Structures are given as structure tokens and as C-alpha cells.
Amino acid sequence: MAYPQLDVRFAARALAAGGVISHPTESVWGLACDPLNPDAVARLLQLKNRPLAKGLILVAGDSDAFGGLLENLSAEQRDKVTQTWPGPVTWLVPHFGRVPPWISGDHHSVALRCSNHPFTAALARAFGAPIVSTSANPGGCQPARSKYQVLRYFGDQLDFVGGGATGGRQSPSEIRDLVTGQVVRAG
């Protein structure tokens, strides 16, 4: 499904201006912001009532957007990661100090996913870099599965809400630890 380029551009501009937006992903609606803007990340965490220590997921439209975050991986590790992308698999990858602590939380790894949702992938490409993307829900509530639920949770506190429907998956993205091979969250 194609999404209006105007929506994609408007959402990307909102991110670049330090906004927090909501967008559909493979399974649920997400909250997104610029990962290098500490004020935007703080606002997103406050909206979710999410502790900084947990860390956040970075989502891109193409694996090349992760650049230096994949460069210290062996060829075998890179292949393992990129064979699952684009798709609903999030990898915990050692970050070697290359991400700010408001992204990694208390972890030595960073969560990375290359989305196959058309709007989310187009948004990250239009933004020109990976974006923070986490489920659109306050702590303790079910993730939003519709634009209506996003608006019910957050009302007018977001800078953009749009992008159509989710990809229809019932389960969230799987999370795998690249170093240990452990499945942290089944998908």
C-alpha cells in the first residue's frame, strides 16, 4: 500500500523539528522521534511513562542507514541481521558507545530494526536517518492498534498522527540478542 508523500514529508518535518509523532508499524501503532534530540526523546518517554533505563528501538527504512552501528560486526553477524530485514525482527547489537545513553538506556547494546511497513520505511528514508520507534501506549496499557486508540491515549499531545493502517501482524516484532543468540521477545 502506498501512502501520500505529503503525509510522509509532513511527518519527517515534524521529527526534524523535534516533534513526537505516531505512525503505523508492522503490528501496532508506534511513537517516533529524532533519536539525537534529547528533548524529543524525553518527551516521548514522558508520554509513555517509560523509564530511560529500558532503552529504545531505532528503526530504519534500509539497513545502510545504520552505518557505523553495524561496522564492528563480523561478516557472519551482519549477514544474520540483514537476512531478517526488512521485517519484524529487532536485533540487540553492541553499540560500542556510538549511541547516546537516552537511546541505549542501561544496556551495552542498541535495538535495531529495518521496517518493512511502507509508511514507517518511507518515513525513516524521508527523515534521512534511523528514528526512535516504540509502541504507542502509556506504560501498563495495551499498544494502540488503531489511529483512534492513539488519539484516545494521547489526544493532542502529538505533533502528527497518520500513515494509514498497521501491517496486520498480531504479535510485536521479535527481539533477538545478536551476541547470545537468545530470543528476548518472541514475535
From TrEMBL:
Q: Which UniProt keywords apply?
A: ATP-binding, Cytoplasm, Nucleotide-binding, Nucleotidyltransferase, Transferase, tRNA processing
The species this protein belongs to is: Microbulbifer aestuariivivens
- Which reaction does this chain catalyze? L-threonine + hydrogencarbonate + ATP = L-threonylcarbamoyladenylate + diphosphate + H2O
EC number of the protein: 2.7.7.87
Which gene name belongs to this protein? tsaC
Organism phylogeny: Bacteria, Pseudomonadati, Pseudomonadota, Gammaproteobacteria, Cellvibrionales
Which family would the database say this protein is a member of?
Belongs to the SUA5 family. TsaC subfamily.
Main subcellular location: cytoplasm
- How is this protein named in the record? Threonylcarbamoyl-AMP synthase
Q: Which SUPFAM superfamilies match?
A: YrdC/RibB
Q: Where is the YrdC-like domain?
A: 5-187
Q: Which InterPro entries match?
A: DHBP_synth_RibB-like_a/b_dom, Sua5-like_dom, TC-AMP_synthase, TC-AMP_synthase_SUA5
Q: Which domain of life is it from?
A: Bacteria
